[in-house]
Amino acid sequence: MDGLEKVLIVEDELHARTGLTELVASWGYRAEGAADGVEGLEKAVEWGPSIVVTDLKMPRMDGMELLHKIGMLPQRIAVVMLTAQGSIESAVEAMRMGAYDYIPKPVDPVRLKTILHNASDQREADVEMEVTRRQVRSAGRLGPLVGNSPQMMEVFSLIERVAPSNVSVLVTGESGTGKELVARALHELSARRLKPFVAVNCAAIPETLIESEIFGHEKGAFTGAQERRAGCFELAEEGTLLLDEIGEMPAATQAKLLRVLEDRKLRRLGSKVETPVDVRVVAATNKDPEQAVASGELRGDLYYRLNVFNIRMPTLREHLMDVSAIAEKLIDDMNERHNCTVAGLKDALIRRLEDYQWPGNVRELRNTIERAVILAGNGMLGIEHLPPNFGEPGSVPSSAGGRAPMTATGGSADAAAAASREVQRYLDEQNTVRVEVGTTVDEAERQLILKTLSSTHNNKTKAAEILGISAKTLQNKLKEYSNSSND
């Protein structure tokens, strides 16, 4: 801990101000107090603290106005808001305005110490972030994200602004747009970057297990619970937790999640005690969250708690100018994964890729590039490495994802095209459901679901998207088939 780190306590109640100042000083900080927002602003300008801990309601100038004025100062100051019971909405609004974090009264010393420690670490992250900003301007990249379009630059800007804070973020956008990459970028650009990043798909966990997976359980909490198990929150301690497809989470679990977000304490299944947690939560959904709230799939209070900051990922068809840059990045990834030496994209292929509308977004582009890299092996990718009839009216987008059984390692365009046709015949065979005359509708449906699940390598989320049903419906169908086989 840097003993010269300055912390300013702004609190109109004398005893509370004196107690907090002495407590913070005992942790190795240089701490001073101010009696209200006016005095606090004066000391912020003259003394230059790196952190300000301020009460929300004060005479002359309240905490919200102080936060706004501190945000206008040239130096970067982390503001932590003290809130009384019942003013959580004000705290959330403060975080929207740029507060680093908030802590309810009476102040929990352990939590305050953790917040100050993280805010101090953020100063180091700020230096790295400025380097990253320069890289973004010159190369169009931010962590795992790629793009030079205005749409992606807006996403980069939002990530840069919110990453240093502990505020919850809701990432929205169609499937395949890269919502998890946004969460990873937020993590990598925060003071939590050296701590765990944990991602959990709420739609992929059976309803009976999701609460245990997220919050953990004690030994004997339910049948089969033979030992204590930490949930995703505890696994992500001091790091970042991504809750993907949050709208698929059961209502009872949503209520418990809301409690954890507000109190920052959780209770494992079967436990009688609460465990403090320090986790930054990022939620993602491919649905319109307001429609999900209206339909009852997503609790309104949870939505407003998660939606402190919203980042919408554009569809790929909205920023087609980034297709070639993303494809080049994917080629580098696939060369390493498949031990290939593809050098880049031919101009004709770039034009074809930019003319396509990409209903599967970046995920579909990734599958297309992976397949092409495997087919080519080396040299430049051309149109001959695309799936047959790619981009033509009435053609079906490929979802092979590079699962071809053979590769071409160069040679003429005719040889590459022949190899492409051979691979496609194999893929068509693998992804075809044959239904005999007399087969019942239920049996045909079962075959279609199981074949689709097999083609996605048991990825239930992707299978549900292909089938056009919800992940919950797919889970129910699979449970029904399992029960039938056991009868």
TrEMBL record:
GO molecular function list: ATP binding; sequence-specific DNA binding
Pfam families: AAA_lid_14, HTH_8, Response_reg, Sigma54_activat
GO biological process per UniProt: phosphorelay signal transduction system; regulation of DNA-templated transcription
Sorted UniProt keywords: ATP-binding, DNA-binding, Nucleotide-binding, Phosphoprotein, Transcription, Transcription regulation
CDD domains hit by this protein: AAA
Residue ranges of the region described as Disordered: 389-410
Keyword Cytoplasm attributed: no
Tagged with keyword Nucleotide-binding: yes
Domain Sigma-54 factor interaction: 145-374
Signal peptide: none
Domain of life, source organism: Bacteria
Domain annotation Response regulatory: ranges: 6-120
InterPro entries, alphabetized: AAA+_ATPase, AAA_lid_NorR, CheY-like_superfamily, Homeodomain-like_sf, HTH_Fis, P-loop_NTPase, Sig_transdc_resp-reg_receiver, Sigma_54_int
Modified residues (4-aspartylphosphate): 55
Name used for this protein in its record: Acetoacetate metabolism regulatory protein AtoC
Organism: Edaphobacter acidisoli
